[in-house]
Amino acid sequence: SSGINAECHYGRAHGKELAIDSTFELEKKRNVPVKYNRELWQNTIHAMKRIQEIRSRRQNQFIKQRLKAGKKLELKDDEKEVNQHIHLIEPRVTEEEMYNAALNKTKEKLKEKQKVLEVESMDMD
Question: Are 5 and 11 in contact (CB under 8 A)?
Fold first, then answer.
């Protein structure tokens, strides 16, 4: 039976649940009869509203903290996907750009050949 008990409290033990919060202490039943006191009632109602504000703020903070890890993983996955499919994102080369690149390569090769020919003709002289 200890295994079942341990499973029930796993979330609390690992910070998956907002269970360790002092605002829950006030919800416990008190088996002590209290004589009616108007001021006590007003203070209690005021305290209950304030406690609810605090609890909701803590819950929101807790949820945001829990979602941070998921956002980090999602960002990592997105980055990995972008790197895998970068060819889809990179700009496509137009035919004109390809033609100009080929033309520039050809011009460079011709210049190199001319230099080689000039050097050979100087050597022969």
Answer: no
Q: Are 2 and 36 in contact (CB under 8 A)?
A: no
Residue holding tokens 């022969």? 124
CA pair distance 85, 72, nearest whole angstrom? 20
Amino acid at the residue 86: I
Structural contact between residues 59 and 65, judged by C-beta atoms closer than 8 angstroms: no
Listed residue (54, 56, 35, 58) closest to 46, CA to CA: 54
| Distances from the Cα of 87 to the Cα of 8, 12, 45, angstroms | 49, 46, 63
Predicted structure pTM score: 0.44
Structure token digits, residue 6: 């341990």
**CA distances in angstroms from 97 to 45, 63, 94, 101, 108, listed in the order given:** 75, 52, 5, 6, 16
Does the pLDDT at position 97 exceed 80? yes
